[in-house]
Write a structure and sequence with these properties.
Among the domains are: 1-114 and 440-548, 3-Layer(aba) Sandwich (Rossmann fold); 173-325, no CATH class. α4 runs antiparallel to α11 (327-373) and α5 runs antiparallel to α10 (307-325). It contains 16 helices and 15 strands. The protein has 548 residues and is α/β, with parallel strands linked by helices.
Amino acid sequence: MITTLHIKNIGIIEDITINLNSGFNVLTGETGAGKSLIIDSLMILCGGRFSKDMIRRGQEYSFVEACIYVPKNEYAEDGNIIVSREIHINGRNLCKINGRMVTVNILKSIMTNIIDIHAQNDSHDIMFQASHINYLDNYANNEVISLKEEYSKLYSEYKKINEELENSFGNEKQKQRTLDLLTYQLNEINNARLKMDEENKLEEKLKIIQNKEKVYNNLTKSSNILSDNIISNFENVISCLSKIESFDAKYMQSLTSIQSLYYDVQDIYETLNGYLYENEYCDLDSNEITSRLDLIYSLKRKYGNNIDEILKYKSDIQEQIDKIMNLEEYNKSLKIKLDEIKLKMNEICNNLHEKRAIYAKKLSEKINNELKDLEMESASFKVEVNLENQYTKNGLDKVEFVISTNIGEEYKPLVKIASGGEMSRIMLAIKVVLANISETSVIIFDEIDTGISGTAARAFSEKMKILSKTHQLICISHLPVIAAKADYNYKIQKEVVEDNTITSIKLLNESETLNEIARISSGNVTDISLKHAMELRKSCESYNKISA
């Protein structure tokens, strides 16, 4: 549930903080006071689109922040998360969850599972046939989940094999052209006779050849220095210390150390002479090495960044050549595998269809019962489940919600219903039926009761009250019967302060609530409208006691 909502610099809202409660929260106020701006702010917080025109005049940015309690979430152990979105006039967009920056898409995916927003004229997914199968499957719940998971794995494999068959090197002419190209590439790599780490060794040898004279001169000079001075000096020191080593242990220790150094220097001297000999008799041809390296560089430009990648590419094209040469047999094996998968998929699809048909009937009955309560006795809602001949991610079923709003009329898709009031009641009926399986904990209604009056409005308010038992319900309404049903009433109003229009919001006490119900009943607070408000409030209290 949303516990606190903070909005800054959106439209005529300068800076307001709303402390919301669990249960049924109803927001009322005069037209233009900023009621819908609160819903707009929540849509922004849920990752919705934002127009720069929404930023309050004279300000550089808008800011929306909410503290939300969600029992299970990855962002806080205690279930409390703080979500914020800050949008600047220059286009800068900053989204945070508990202080951690996230993208708009991540914000949207998380908030979709927490808040469900409905408006009178929004394009809610209930209007689109493609979403209806998800509603039905959510209602069936465990009855179809395991089947759908099993089907999903098979469907992924089915798509992969189909794509492979469709992309099997084209027609005969295309296949031969591809085979010629791959064969040429394979021969070019084979003829090069590449060896692992060959390039590094060749580059080292080339470096030596290109610097042969410099290497020879410095090796000779180093060898002569060791031979003429250092080694002979070491020998003289060793001779001197040998004559006195018996007089004191420290002389013997020094002699041992100098002898060790002498042997090390002798090893170095011999090693350098070996390098000198190798350099003197080196018969490497720099042109031959350069040519070999050029060939390797050419192959790298075509087939990989190094010899290892080139050899891997060679292995891949050999595999493709073998596949083309044996394409008929390979495709045959794929088709056999595809047929086996389709058999399994068909079996699961038939099981899914049977279960969906059963739950479609149950869901239709429950929604029709709710519609009767909502003063739509002549309406008949139906969940149609038909087997198609095209596999989709959900199986072979096409699920569609259809309705006949009057006796004798044909069933039509929901999108063809002209009346907004009817659509509102249908949507509410579906929400009430699916409330217990809904993942979202907060449901928000923005004047979806437009076009509803009389007994339908009373029934509408009662269904919303039921929905508020399992969800936090936030509703902007102009109907007194809905305001009377609220657990908490908030009044939104605007005022002019220093030539600026600002919006404020207040949680009403019981007396103030009665006055607000009276105002929206008749436009003015009179003794008659106030008495009517008290009657509405009392009748709702009676209903609450009965339903409790």
